[in-house]
Specification:
Elements (H helix, E strand, L loop, with lengths): L12 H13 L33 H10 L4 E10 L36 H4 L6 E10 L3 E7 L4 E7 L2 E6 L4 E6 L5 H5 L26 H10 L5 E11 L2 E10 L6 E9 L5 E8 L7 E9 L17 E4 L8 E5 L5 E4 L7 E3 L6 E5 L16 H10 E6 L2 E7 L4 E5 L3 E5 L3 H11 L1
Parallel strand pairs: 6-12
Antiparallel strand pairs: 1-2, 1-11, 2-3, 3-4, 4-5, 5-6, 7-8, 8-9, 9-10, 10-11, 13-14, 15-16, 16-20, 17-18, 18-19, 19-20
Length: 432
């Protein structure tokens, strides 16, 4: 079906931004305790069939429809596929913070290795591969997301002041409370509020996670709408048995690795039903998130009830990761580091071609075999994962995925963004 309208030009950017701010603010609060964005992302069309004949709308009208949506109650299944061109995190998770069942309990050094149910590491598995989620929401204080496995299930439940995470494979649970701030305030745009439990009203240890529904992905995409962006309505679709409009968002700038983002918007409720991002290089979607089944009726109250099964090992958030410490460097006498040691990035450029520049702690680049910091075999592995580049900045290594690229220079400067390798090298040269 032909597009309903031509591309919007830059003269309409202000109206689009106003609508997109409202849309971001009222995006459906599905994810538990702010399962928030780290990437923008999307699999082949999910449960789609035919192009329904719907009344014509403009991009501005569709964005306003998303903003006006007041969907607070729903349940259903979501399928998420992510293809960044990286190995699956599932088998590697144990080495990056304890997603595996063997992470619970005491380690060889007698220290607590954390909980297998800790969302901070467990939900990173969504960053690779294909996953099926069961979701439910009943207003800003009740949400549930379950990641369904072949013979196990991982659930994240927010019910009032309590946030529970439960991993059936290991029979471990993670519990946090947030009596200092309401998630409703976050949904209403009160982003500045902080409680002693964590930043911006999110229970400590549960912030900074990945999006898990089309609405959350769409919220991040709509934040990028400005005069560097083309926005249009491109026909219709049917998702999970519901009629929807297709909102297409494309960068106008060169150098971005993002090809386009498509959001299927429910014709009746204005709720995003499917989110797809394809790379500028072509091929399969980077991430595809869409409902395969959805119901807008009020879920049963029992959906959000949780009591740890008998014998469950329960980890309290206040006892895990005290003082905000992230890790210990045992090679440096057990010195503990926190996020404060990482400097704030400088943003180069704007829009889709923006690049973050920051310095690594210690003011030096990657360790090398020549310096004696890494074994020769490890050096070969590092070299195989990146491309060696040089310029006015000196020399460095570019690590690439299908969406995000990063240049690490020998002097410890990092340039990262959803841009091409050439764009990173150019930015590094101009900053030298």
């Amino acid at each position: 079906m032909a597009p309903y309208e031509p591309e919007k030009d830059t003269s309409e950017a202000a109206d689009l931004r106003a609508g997109r701010r409202k849309a971001a603010r009222y995006a459906v609060p599905i994810a538990v305790a702010g399962v928030a964005a780290a990437t923008i992302g999307l699999v082949p069309a999910l449960a789609t069939s035919g192009d329904p004949d719907l009344p014509k709308v403009t991009a501005q009208e569709l964005i306003e429809k998303i903003a006006a949506s007041d969907t607070q109650q729903l349940s259903g299944n979501v399928k998420i596929s992510t293809d960044l061109g990286l190995p699956s995190f599932g088998g590697m998770a144990g080495g990056f913070g304890g997603a595996g069942a063997d992470r619970g309990g005491d380690g060889e050094d007698g220290e607590d290795n954390g909980s297998a149910a800790d969302p901070k590491s467990k939900l990173m598995e969504l960053a690779s591969g294909t996953h099926t989620l069961r979701v439910a929401a009943d207003g800003p204080d009740k949400q549930k997301v379950s990641v369904l496995g072949d013979a196990s299930e991982y659930s994240l439940i927010h019910n009032g002041d309590d946030v529970w995470a439960y991993d059936s494979a290991s029979n471990e649970a993670y519990h946090a409370t947030d009596k200092g701030a309401s998630l409703e305030k976050r949904d209403k745009g009160d982003r500045g509020h902080k409680s002693e439990k964590g930043e911006e009203g999110v229970p400590k240890g549960l912030d900074g996670e990945l999006p898990s529904t089309p609405a959350e992905f769409a919220e991040q995409a709509l934040k990028a709408v400005d005069d560097t962006t083309s926005v249009k309505v491109d026909g219709t679709a049917q998702v999970a048995g519901r009629d929807a409009y297709r909102l297409v968002i494309k960068p106008k700038q060169s150098g971005s690795t993002v090809g386009q983002i498509t959001v299927a918007v429910d014709e009746k409720t204005g709720t995003p039903l499917k989110f797809t991002m394809t790379p500028a290089s072509g091929g399969a979607a980077v991430v595809d998130a869409g409902f395969t089944k959805v119901d807008f009726d009020k879920p049963s109250a029992s959906t959000f009830d949780f009591t740890p099964p008998k014998g469950t090992k329960v980890t309290e958030a206040d006892e895990h990761g005290k003082d905000g410490r992230d890790f210990k460097d045992k090679d440096k006498g057990g010195k503990e580091f926190d996020k404060g040691e990482l400097n704030e990035p400088k943003i180069i450029g704007e829009g889709w071609s923006s690049i973050a520049q920051l310095k690594l702690p210690g003011g030096q680049g990657l360790p090398t075999a020549g310096s004696g910091d890494v074994p020769q075999d490890a050096q070969k592995l590092i070299d195989s994962l990146g491309d060696q580049v040089s310029g006015k900045f000196g020399s460095g290594t570019v690590f690439s995925t299908r969406l995000i690229n990063a240049l690490v220079t020998d002097d410890g400067t990092v340039y990262v963004g959803a841009v091409t390798k050439d764009a990173l090298v150019k930015a590094a040269d101009e900053a030298s």
